[in-house]
């Protein structure tokens, strides 16, 4: 059963995607739910289950491009907190499909931990020549994030004008959702460790 708060968040997301291609929800999950996910991220880190992220289809490690460590969420082997997260994202997927007929049929997601000083240079979330990733989502897990901690998500609103962007602080509970093909974005380096879950809703590939 979907709570009224979640329903409200979900309709804010679909409304804003329709209007501007992206949405920022300040409190998508409550502090308790975020704490469970953050604890799980730290558990994975301590267990050696977070691995250096790679980029592109060829999966090369490129620390100058991105400096985070990731762990892919596996539904068949998920913790309670991960299952709750996947269920929420499945509700969001249904709502987006109803609103936009995107034919989303799959969701992939990973935890990400950026050590202090690490970032992710300006990029698009689609591999060149591949368009299965339709919608990107990022949920932040960092308590008491201050502007001076850095680590903002910088989203470029116009690909031809690098001065038009918004900076989003990675505060716990905040969720950002955007059309994967439309927004160049980057992660600015932070002064402290930065944790999140990134996810992508995918459509069926034409060539697979
Ligand atoms: C990504 C990404 C942004 C963020 O993982 O592709 O752009 O704010 N993350 O963590
Ligand atoms: Mn990205």
UniProtKB/TrEMBL annotation:
Q: Residue limits of the Fe2OG dioxygenase domain?
A: 100-203
A Pfam family found in this protein is 2OG-FeII_Oxy_3
The protein's gene is named egl
**Annotated protein name in UniProt:** 2OG-Fe(II) oxygenase
Q: State the needed cofactors, names only.
A: L-ascorbate
Q: What organism is this sequence from? A: Candidatus Methylopumilus turicensis
Query: What biological process terms from GO does the record include?
Result: cellular response to hypoxia
Cross-referenced PANTHER family:
EGL NINE HOMOLOG-RELATED, HIF PROLYL HYDROXYLASE, ISOFORM C
Gene3D superfamilies xrefs: q2cbj1_9rhob like domain (2.60.120.620)
């Amino acid at each position: 059963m979907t709570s009224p708060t979640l329903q409200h968040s979900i309709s804010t997301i679909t409304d804003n995607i329709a209007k501007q291609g992206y949405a920022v929800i300040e409190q998508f999950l409550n502090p308790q739910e975020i704490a469970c996910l953050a604890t799980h991220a730290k558990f994975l880190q301590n267990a050696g289950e977070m691995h250096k992220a790679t980029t592109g289809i060829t999966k090369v490690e490129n620390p100058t491009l991105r400096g985070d460590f990731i762990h892919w969420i596996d539904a068949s082997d998920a913790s309670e907190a991960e299952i709750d997260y996947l269920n929420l994202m499945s509700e969001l997927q249904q709502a987006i499909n109803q609103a936009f007929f995107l034919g989303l049929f799959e969701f992939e997601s990973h935890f990400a931990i950026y050590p202090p000083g690490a970032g992710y240079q300006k990029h698009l979330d689609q591999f060149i020549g591949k368009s299965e990733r339709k919608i990107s989502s990022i949920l932040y897990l960092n308590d008491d994030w201050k502007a001076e901690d850095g680590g903002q998500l910088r989203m470029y609103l116009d690909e031809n004008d690098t001065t038009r962007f918004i900076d989003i602080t990675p505060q716990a509970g905040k969720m950002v959702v955007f059309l994967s093909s439309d927004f160049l974005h980057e992660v600015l380096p932070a002064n402290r460790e930065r944790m999140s879950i990134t996810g992508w809703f995918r459509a069926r590939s034409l060539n697979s």
